[in-house]
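Exam revision sheet. Question 4 asks you to relate a sequence to its structure. Input first:
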Amino acid sequence: MQKIIVLNPKGGSGKTTVAINLASHFAVQGLRPTLMDMDAQGSSTRWLSKRGMEHAAIHGIASYERNSRVTRSFALRIPQECQRVIVDTPAALDPQRMPDVTRDAHAIVVPVLPSDIDIHAAAKCITDLLLVAKIPRHEQRIGVIANRVKKNTVMYRALMRFLQTLDIPILTTLRDSQNYVRAAESGIGIFEMKPYQVKEDLEQWLPLLGWLSQKSPAEAQPIENRAAVDVPLPTPVPAPLTSIAPATPAPAPAELQGVGSAVPAVNLVEPAKPQTKPHSPILASLPAWFTRQS
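Answer key, C-alpha cells:
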C-alpha cells in the first residue's frame, strides 16, 4: 500500500484538486484507493458524496470528524484491498504536527501557486518538512507541483527560479484549466472525462504519475509489472543420498598417478561406520551408548 500526502499549510494552493484527481486516477486503474480528508472544510468528502455508483469506487475517510460511537482507530481503518491512500491535509497545519501527518508516507506532494505569498509559504513548508518532520532530502520523497500556472508570465518565471533553488524535484506544472472545476462539480476527476476534452491536462499529469510509480512499495506492484525487480530463483533441492548409486572414482591426474594408494569408492547409500576404540580409561568407563556415538 502506497501512502501519498498532499501538503501545503498555505490555503488555496490546490491540495484538494490534486488529491481528488489522484484518487480518480487510481480508481480508474483498479487500485481501490482511499481518500482521507483531514481538512475540516470537508471538500474531498463533499466531492466523494457527488460520485455516482457508475464510477469506480473510492473509499472515503473523514478524519476530521469525531464519532463518539466508535473508536478512533475503527473510524480511520483502511480496507485491506486498498493499494493507494491519498491524504488531503488541512490549511494552517501546525509544523509540530508534520511528523505525525507524514509518518510512513512514500511520497509528499507540495502544490505551489505562482504568487509571491505562495512562494514564501512554500519555502517555509519545505523547510519544516526537512527540519521538523525530518524527511531526508536524499530520499527524494518530497516533490513540488507548480499549480494553476500561466506560462510566459513574470510570476511563472519567478516561481520556476525559486523552485530550482530548493534542490527538490519539480514534478510537473498544471495549467489553470476549467476542466478541473467541471470534473469536481460532477464528483469525478479529469481521468474520467472524455480524453479529447482533457488531452492537454492529462499530458501534464504524466510526469507526476511516473514519479509516484517509482515510490510505490514493491509489494503493491502487480506481478506482471515486476520486470525490473530481481527475484532470486529457488535453490534446487538435492536428491536424497539413498537414491544415489555409488560413484565410480574419477581417474587421478597424470602427475599424481602412482602416488599413494588408490582411493576406495565411497558408498553413499550407507556410509561406513568408523571402527574406533576407547583410547583412554575415561572413555572406557562411559556407558556403551556413548562409546557408539563417539
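Marking note for examiners. The two ends are 56 Å apart (CA to CA).
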